């Protein structure tokens, strides 16, 4: 039996982009991932499909598993010869009890490695615009647990030393003890006017920041219903917050946007939304499946020389054709012996990745534009590998220009129903601000996905979307949405994923501008200045 090993991996403070390269390698390599409450779902999706997931999360008073049991679990898994990724929020050795787990592994003779992570004690303030050190304010920072029992007879923290001896104090896991922390610092000489910052859900799109002083922060937190997880920063550096604020003032900050693309394709849209400050909520409404019988497609691919053009209308069409060519033992470069057309840049890029030349791409990424721009096709034979539910517009248009078109299913588009309950609950509770549709099939399947849950009542489905912006990638998708009774609020003018995100940003920026104007306008009964 092979020897097992445990990697104690710091997942970082929440933003999945802050995982280290080595940490990501450990996730992808692991047989088992033992993860905490704050581990990002995006990071967990990086694991191998067959990897086992074990949740051992701990909140303030709710433990899925005691620490002693976690220690024992790590030993048992490694003794089975497994590669274990112990994925912990922040850094394992900064209030993460990673040291205790490492000691247990050493005592049991288990190999282990510690992979440091970005600690929330530094990252959360940074994402709030608060550098924990600054030469104009302080050259020192100290990090403490705020989870210490305030009723202990003797504190492990030297409050008389740290109150005035360190410029910046950072407390993690301390929200429940905020009153005690504030009182002890003031009792030992820290000025009541010392600035304090609270960062909740630091580095995540839902991040919230509250600032005040030692004198008023407890009352402010109570009024704002601030609750864990929170990082507490005490010191003059907190005054830099408004000047250096960069993360939570982006165009889509605080917006929760539903992403309906396939699980495999959602990452690009989610990343772009996250860059603009949104929190993407991934809910694939479609799944791409191979053909149950690919014989018709195979026959066409075996006889590629008989075609003048092969027209691809999606990334999936390209991947399916290339997959079947490989399965048939055919050279992918056979496609370079005919002329290739791609409906848009993403499809063209997929062809280029395979070393294939794209002879034509329309300026507008819809079937109608492709038909209009493809010249000299009269009498030409065209292969159109497409989805089993694709629109007929492209084939019809090419035939009207005199082409001989072979429409052949290259893959199946299957509704994904697994997320229906979760999405309906989020819509019903008002947790979603916008929903994105990247194809007609995502719209149709979204409606179909919710209808069984709501008793097949279309009006109830539509009522769930009240107050939610509907954003479509282009006019064809918008047309489908309107045909199903949806109100389309945003339509991209460039029919790409970046174009869709840009359109959503512009819509919210316009809405913000209108709100500012409305707030500045005199109210009824008020006179204008001057």
Question: Can you summarize this structure?
Answer:
The protein has 530 residues and is of the alpha/beta class.
Description:
The structure is a single chain. By secondary structure, the chain is of the alpha/beta class. The strands form 4 sheets. A 5-stranded parallel β-sheet has the order 3-2-4-1-5, with helices on both faces. Strands 6-7-10-8-9 form a 5-stranded mixed β-sheet, sandwiched between helices. Helix 12 links the parallel strand 14 and strand 15. Helix 3 packs across helix 4, helix 14 packs parallel to helix 15 and helix 17 runs parallel beside helix 19. The longest helix has 24 residues. It is globular, with a radius of gyration of 28 Å. It starts with a strand and ends in a 10-residue tail after the last helix. 42% of the residues are buried.
Proportion of beta-strand residues: 15-25%
Which strand order do you get reading across the main beta sheet?
3-2-4-1-5
Give the N-terminus to C-terminus distance in angstroms.
86 Å
Helical content (DSSP H or I, runs of 4+):
25-40%
Mean pLDDT: 90
**What does the radius of gyration come to?**
28 Å
What would you call the shape? Answer: globular
Based on the structure, what is the oligomeric state of the protein chains? Answer: single chain
Work out the helix count: 20
- Structural class comes to alpha/beta
Mind summarizing the main beta sheet? 5 strands, parallel
- Outline the low-pLDDT stretches: none
For the secondary structure, the number of strands is 20
């Amino acid at each position: 039996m092979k020897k097992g090993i445990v990697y104690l991996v710091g997942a970082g403070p929440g933003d999945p982009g802050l995982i280290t390269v080595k940490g990501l390698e450990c996730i992808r390599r692991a047989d088992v991932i033992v993860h905490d409450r704050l581990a990002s779902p995006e990071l967990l999706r990086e694991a191998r499909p067959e990897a086992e997931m074990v949740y051992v999360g701990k909140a303030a008073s709710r433990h899925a598993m005691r620490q002693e049991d976690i220690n024992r679990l790590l030993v048992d898994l490694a003794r089975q010869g497994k590669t274990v990724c112990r994925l912990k929020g922040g850094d394992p050795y900064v209030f993460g009890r990673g040291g205790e787990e490492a000691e247990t592994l050493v005592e049991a003779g288990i190999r282990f490695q510690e992979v440091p992570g970005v600690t929330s004690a530094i990252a959360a303030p940074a994402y709030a615009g608060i550098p924990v050190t600054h030469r104009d304010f302080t050259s020192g920072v100290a990090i403490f647990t705020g989870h210490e029992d305030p009723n202990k007879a003797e504190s492990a923290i030297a409050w008389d030393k740290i109150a005035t001896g360190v410029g910046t104090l950072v407390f993690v896991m301390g929200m429940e003890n905020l009153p005690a922390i504030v009182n002890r610092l003031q009792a030992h000489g820290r000025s009541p006017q010392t600035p304090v910052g609270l960062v909740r859900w630091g580095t995540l799109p839902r991040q919230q920041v509250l600032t005040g002083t030692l004198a008023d922060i407890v009352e402010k937190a109570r009024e704002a219903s601030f609750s864990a997880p929170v990082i507490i920063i005490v010191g003059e550096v907190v005054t830099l917050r408004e000047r250096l604020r960069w993360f939570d003032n982006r165009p889509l900050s605080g917006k929760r946007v539903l992403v309906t693309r396939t699980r495999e394709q959602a990452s690009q849209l989610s990343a772009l939304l996250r860059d603009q400050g949104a929190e993407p909520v991934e809910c694939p409404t479609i799944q791409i499946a191979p053909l149950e019988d690919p014989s018709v497609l195979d026959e066409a691919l075996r006889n590629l020389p008989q075609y003048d053009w092969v027209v691809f209308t999606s990334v999936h069409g390209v991947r399916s054709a290339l997959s079947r060519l490989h399965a048939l033992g055919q050279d992918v470069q056979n496609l370079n012996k005919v002329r290739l057309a791609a409906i848009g840049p993403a499809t063209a890029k997929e062809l280029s990745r395979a070393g294939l030349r794209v002879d034509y791409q329309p300026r507008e990424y819809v079937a109608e534009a492709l038909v209009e721009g493809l010249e000299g096709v009269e009498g030409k034979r065209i292969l159109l590998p497409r989805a089993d539910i694709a629109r007929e517009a492209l084939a019809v248009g090419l035939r009207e220009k005199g082409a001989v078109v072979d429409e052949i299913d290259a893959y199946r588009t299957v509704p994904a129903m697994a997320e229906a309950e979760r999405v309906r609950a989020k819509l019903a509770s008002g947790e979603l601000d916008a929903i994105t549709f990247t194809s007609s099939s995502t719209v149709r399947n979204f409606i179909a996905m919710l209808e069984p849950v709501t008793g097949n009542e279309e009006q109830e489905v539509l009522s769930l979307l009240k107050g939610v912006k509907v954003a479509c990638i282009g006019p064809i998708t918008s047309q489908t949405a309107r045909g199903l009774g949806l109100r389309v609020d945003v339509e991209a003018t460039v029919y790409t994923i970046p174009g869709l995100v840009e359109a959503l940003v512009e819509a919210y920026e316009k809405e913000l501008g209108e709100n500012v104007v409305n707030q500045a306008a005199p109210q009824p009964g008020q006179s204008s200045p001057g």
